[in-house]
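F.,

This is the one I mentioned.
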């Protein structure tokens, strides 16, 4: 369920839709504007501080923005702001390298990360409320004392990491270099927005330590930053803590905001870019008004009218009616110097970019000439308002604290929310039409077409800096000759945690209808929103052997028409309500998800109940979705990481096993699936006794009982399906390779079979996995990313299904260190098996699991997911309370026992997706035996 946001670039997805809606319910009344009480003050050194007291959970979001990004970069230093974001996680005068991450994760921090936008760079953590002082200590030491010890070793490693990030997220991402070409065509060379945020390989590698130091001194002073604390705080005490940790830091030089004139585009520009993709994609881009300036809100609404879900005009035309596009998006990316409006569409197999362009141009001409209908504008406003309210559920990450910092930067008013909603509500059809006519003209756009072919990358193997791996003494010698801030001895000691806050996980309140449907409820009146999931305990594992992907096909068809509603009517009705509806499947479950305002929840639930109980499975819609799934299968092959996951599943479970495929299945199965197959799967599995309705949010139990009996009470009772999946038949090979010639990186998965979700070893496994690869400070990430710079990131996980499911280690690594990376991974596994965890490492990993539990219940959807887990895996209602106790009891012996049982190197399969000529010799030297070759669907050749 893709929900747009107004805070960051607004990219709106959609799906097919058709004829005008009939009998669409009236639009909802305007949602009440939530009151966000905040205090803002400025320290004498210029640091802006914004405090929000919110007692929903015993957690606090710490969100620090520096008002610097690529907009401030000097020529020849593209990607510098982003590179420096990485540098901020290095050591400081008082915090050795890696210690901050270990301490924060061990304190139970969640959503700990940083991010670079064109106009700002953010650093954020969500911590238990008794650990607020620890987070402030870390952020303040970075601001005040990073420069003292900034060294070449940290720079060299992060240059490697960022270049790997570029290879993975730009060059290795389907259409990544095509999008980059669009930005470069929209803005002239020398403009701060011309290059992608991540920059070029040459500029990343060419950055000098002196450049890094100068950048810090210029832009990372307290007077160029704003700090938001949102959550379980006492404002008076929080103010005292902020003053203690940040108040003595010196003010930097005044920062002048960039004053750049973006030249208009006066004639259409066209570019063709070859990329490693199967389907062509067209990007159209325009320069548009800056964030919060006249025209910005009108174009946000226009973007939703064109590409907002299944009710969007472009989907109705290109995907649903003409069936020439696989997907289409539209979005207004609102920025400080100039915004951009982008439409992108991927061609359906057999269709051309020229067809897409002509169809898009026809819709734009229609919108410019006749304008939208009032109901379309109302629909867009309703959906955008729901999305904005939903973003406030979460305190950290991209939630409330981030939103306030965003408002503060762009408007100077953290409390801009009512004004933001007001500007949306003022938009009418005539205003949208004027904006489209003014800004989305053919002579003012860039058209970039991505086509299948061999991409061209500028990825020079530049020499490393001399002394890059300097020892500690020489590294410290590169620090500041004169410290930026005076020494304060007390800063050398991490602050102690306050008294542990009390937390009781939501258990849910359940009841069962007469037909056997279980209803699980949690009341949360914090915002006027309701989230619900109809969960069926049958997914891909229930697929017949001849039809992998049938569960996913069935779920996808639910939204495509009922006995009384057509697919377009469903799309328009949900959109008019400002709601979001989605259906899908995983190995264990099929799910229909709904998010709606309290005021519109009943009407949205009516639609949800209808698609679950009365799907019509029209032949024409099946053929549309068949074509969609075939196109999605082609797109799936473009993503090396997805291909590696599919190959690992196929190798672990074996041919014919239902869990040996992705949810799309295989091309022959998609082509051979009939309406009878889909209807039979639905009839057998979508029965009340095999399902639960999980509802969380601003609705009481009494209200929910009335609604569920009204809309689900007549669902006919039926016996839940039985049966279990057969035993896995894994490959005999230990090395699996998928050849993708000329790829720049290798996508790795090291996989073996793990236990089911209800294993008694779960607490020990979670602690063990955190140490190995489940945390940023894990052994694998510290080795391969932070020490060697082989990868942008590496992590491990247990999938945990009702039956045994995979354990996997996943990373995309530099091609020339593929073999070395696998060797290091097995070294870390061996060490974990052979040696008990040291007490400090055990405590940090255990506390990371235990103390982060409250952060897993931030939103209605989070609570719903946790309650769903209880239902799907037959866990006790008090499971999460008992989990805390069981985690606290995990000791080093239990972790080592779990590692020895579940991390057996002899049973692990190494899957590598990359250039066979370059990586196979490296892998063969590891003694893994003959490589098994698989195709891009993960199937043995």
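My design for it:
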């Amino acid at each position: 369920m893709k929900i747009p946001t107004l805070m960051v670039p607004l990219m709106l997805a959609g799906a097919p839709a058709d004829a005008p809606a009939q009998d669409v319910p009236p639009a909802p009344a305007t949602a009440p504007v939530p009151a966000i009480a905040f205090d803002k003050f400025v320290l004498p050194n210029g640091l802006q501080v914004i405090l929000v007291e919110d007692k929903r959970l015993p957690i606090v979001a710490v969100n620090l923005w520096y008002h610097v990004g690529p907009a401030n970069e000097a020529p020849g230093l593209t990607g510098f702001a982003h590179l420096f974001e990485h540098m901020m996680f290095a050591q400081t005068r008082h915090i050795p390298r890696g210690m901050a991450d270990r301490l924060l994760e061990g304190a139970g921090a969640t959503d700990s990360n940083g991010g670079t936008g064109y106009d700002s760079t953010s650093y954020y953590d969500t911590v238990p409320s008794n650990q607020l002082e620890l987070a402030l200590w870390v952020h303040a030491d970075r601001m005040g004392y990073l420069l003292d010890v900034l060294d070449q070793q940290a720079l060299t490693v992060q240059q490697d990491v960022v270049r790997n990030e570029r290879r993975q997220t730009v060059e290795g991402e389907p259409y990544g270099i095509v999008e980059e070409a669009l930005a470069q065509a929209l803005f002239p060379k020398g403009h701060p927005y011309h290059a992608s945020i991540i920059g070029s390989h040459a500029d990343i590698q060419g950055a000098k330590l002196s450049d890094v130091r100068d950048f810090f001194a210029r832009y990372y002073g307290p007077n160029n930053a704003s700090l938001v604390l949102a959550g379980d705080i006492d404002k008076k005490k929080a103010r005292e803590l902020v003053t203690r940790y940040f108040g003595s830091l010196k003010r930097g030089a005044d920062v002048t905001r960039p004053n750049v004139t973006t030249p208009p585009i006066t004639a259409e520009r066209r570019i063709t870019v070859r990329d490693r993709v199967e389907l062509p994609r067209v990007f159209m881009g325009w320069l548009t008004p800056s964030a919060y300036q006249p025209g910005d809100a009108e174009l946000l609404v226009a973007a939703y009218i064109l590409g907002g879900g299944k009710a969007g005009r472009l989907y109705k035309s290109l995907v649903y009616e003409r069936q020439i596009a696989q997907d289409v998006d539209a979005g207004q990316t609102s920025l400080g110097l100039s915004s951009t409006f982008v439409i992108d569409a991927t061609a359906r197999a057999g269709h051309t970019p020229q067809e897409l362009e002509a169809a898009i141009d026809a819709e734009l001409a229609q919108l410019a000439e006749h304008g939208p209908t009032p109901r379309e504008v109302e629909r867009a406003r309703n959906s955008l308002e729901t999305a904005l309210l939903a973003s406030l559920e979460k305190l950290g990450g991209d939630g409330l604290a981030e939103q306030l910092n965003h408002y503060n930067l762009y408007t100077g008013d953290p409390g801009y929310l009512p004004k933001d909603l007001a500007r949306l509500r003022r938009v009418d059809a005539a205003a949208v039409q004027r904006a489209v006519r003014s800004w989305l003209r053919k002579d003012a756009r860039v058209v970039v077409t991505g086509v299948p072919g061999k991409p061209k990358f500028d990825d020079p193997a530049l020499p490393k800096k001399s002394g890059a791996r300097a020892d500690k003494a020489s590294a410290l010698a590169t620090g500041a000759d004169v410290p930026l801030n005076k020494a304060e001895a007390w800063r050398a000691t991490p602050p102690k945690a306050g008294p542990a806050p009390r937390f009781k996980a939501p258990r849910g309140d359940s009841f069962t209808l007469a037909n056997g449907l279980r209803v699980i409820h949690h009341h949360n009146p914090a915002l006027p929103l309701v989230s619900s999931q109809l969960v069926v305990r049958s997914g891909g594992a229930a697929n017949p052997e001849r039809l992998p992907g049938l569960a996913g096909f069935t779920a996808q068809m639910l939204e495509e028409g009922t006995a009384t509603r057509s697919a377009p009517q469903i799309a328009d009705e949900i959109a008019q309500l400002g709601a979001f509806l989605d259906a899908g499947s995983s190995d264990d479950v099929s799910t229909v998800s709904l998010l709606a305002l309290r005021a519109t929840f009943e009407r949205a639930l009516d639609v949800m109940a209808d698609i679950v109980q009365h799907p019509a499975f029209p032949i024409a819609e099946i053929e549309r979705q068949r074509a969609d799934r075939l196109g999605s299968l082609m797109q799936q092959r473009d993503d090396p990481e997805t291909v590696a996951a599919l190959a690992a599943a196929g190798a672990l479970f074996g041919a014919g096993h239902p869990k040996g495929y992705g949810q799309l299945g295989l091309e022959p199965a998609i082509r051979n699936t009939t309406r009878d197959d889909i209807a039979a799967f639905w009839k057998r599995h979508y029965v009340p006794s095999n399902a639960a309705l999980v509802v969380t949010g601003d609705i009481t139990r009494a209200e929910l009982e009335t609604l569920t009996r009204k809309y689900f009470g007549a669902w006919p009772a039926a016996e839940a399906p039985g049966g279990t999946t057969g035993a896995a038949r894994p490959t005999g090979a230990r090395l699996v390779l998928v050849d993708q010639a000329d790829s720049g990186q290798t996508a790795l998965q090291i996989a073996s079979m793990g236990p089911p979700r209800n294993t008694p070893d779960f607490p020990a496994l979670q602690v063990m996995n955190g140490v190995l690869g489940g945390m940023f400070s894990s052994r694998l990430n510290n080795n391969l990313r932070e020490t060697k710079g082989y990868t942008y990131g590496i992590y491990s996980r247990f999938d945990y299904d009702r039956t045994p499911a995979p354990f996997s280690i996943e990373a995309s690594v530099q091609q020339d260190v593929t073999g070395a990376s696998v060797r290091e991974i097995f070294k870390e596994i061996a060490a974990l098996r052979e040696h008990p965890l040291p007490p400090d490492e055990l405590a940090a990993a255990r506390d990371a699991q235990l103390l982060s539990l409250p952060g897993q219940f931030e939103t209605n959807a989070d609570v719903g997911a946790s309650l769903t887990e209880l239902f799907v895996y037959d866990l006790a209602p008090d499971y999460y309370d008992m989990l805390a106790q069981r985690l606290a009891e995990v000791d080093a012996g239990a972790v080592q026992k779990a590692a020895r049982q579940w991390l057996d190197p002899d049973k692990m399969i190494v899957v590598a997706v990359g250039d066979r000529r370059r990586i196979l010799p490296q892998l063969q030297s590891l003694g893994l035996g003959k490589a098994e070759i698989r195709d891009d669907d993960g199937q043995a050749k």
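The longest helix spans residues 152-171.

Talk soon.
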